[in-house]
Amino acid sequence: MAKKRKVILVTDGDEYAARSIEYVAAKIGGRAISRTQGNPTTLSGPQIVKLILTAKSDPVFVMFDDCGLLGEGAGEMALKYVAENQHIEVLGIIAVASKTHQTEWTRVDVSIDRFGELTEFGVDKSGIRDIEIGRISGDTVYCLDQLNVPIIVGIGDIGKMARKDSVKNGCPITMKAVRLILKRSGYHDDPNC
User: Fold this and answer.
1) Fewest CB atoms within 10 A around its CB: which of 14, 17, 76, 159?
2) What is the 8-class DSSP label of residue 20?
3) How far is 161 from 25, CA to CA, in rounded Å?
4) Contact 88, 147 (CB under 8 A)
5) Percent of all residues in the chain with a pLDDT value above 70, rounded to a whole number
6) Count of helix runs (H) and strand runs (E) in the chain
7) 6 CB burial (10 A radius; 0-12, 13-18, 19+)
8) pLDDT tens, 76-100?
9) Residue 72: what pLDDT?
């Protein structure tokens, strides 16, 4: 049987998220599937799995976005399909907080605020600590509680958070979330873990 591909799922797909995820993937020697960028997600689960299986190296970063659609939208259907595929091993999920009109929430194992601090509380879109313990509100998070993954890390809006997570600054919050996922999942190809 072929080796399972190691994947990190990201619940955001706008241009800022894409630039940040591509930057972080390159820094740690992984691959970002740039074609999964989109707001909303336009590729199906089977199409995304094909792209993952052809990626040159692990971990593979995949973006999903529902564009604020309430309930299980195209992004979440694709995410679920990828997460449950027999050829994929999900190392963890970066759950991105958002400010939608009708928010959904998910549990998170830990959050990272915009100052880079780990917290048991959720965070909002700006990366500010929220009042809820162990959960965040977001847009493409509806199905995360149904998945069996090693860790779900909550963060604010990738690549933004008052420019504290910009590519210009090295995406420190996104990078910290990725390193935490690599460490907690037992994946040790990142020398900084």
Assistant:
1) 14
2) H
3) 20
4) no
5) 92
6) 4, 11
7) buried
8) 999 999 999 999 999 999 999 987 6
9) 76
DSSP 131-167: EEETEEEESS-TTGGGS--S-EEEESSTT-TTTTT-G
| Residue 2 or 178, more confident | 178
- What is the average pLDDT across 63-67? 89
Structure tokens at 179: 């390193």
Q: In a 10 Å sphere around its CB, with 0-12 CB exposed, 13-18 middle and 19+ buried, how is residue 134 labelled?
A: middle
Rounded CA-CA distance 47/111 in Å is: 30
Closest alpha carbon to 106 in 5, 9, 33:
9
Burial of 61 (0-12, 13-18, 19+ CB in 10 A): buried
Buried b (16+ CB within 10 A) or exposed e, 149-158: bebbbbbbbb
d(CA 67, CA 118): 27
Q: What is the pLDDT of residues 4-47, one digit of tens each?
A: 999 999 999 999 999 999 999 999 999 999 999 988 899 999 99
Q: Which amino acid is at 160?
A: K
Q: Which two tokens stand for residue 186?
A: 């037992």
The confidence score (pLDDT) of residue 193 equals: 45
Phi-psi label, residue 163: left if phi above 0, alpha if psi -120 to 50, beta otherwise: left
Closest C-alpha among 28, 15, 17 to residue 155: 17
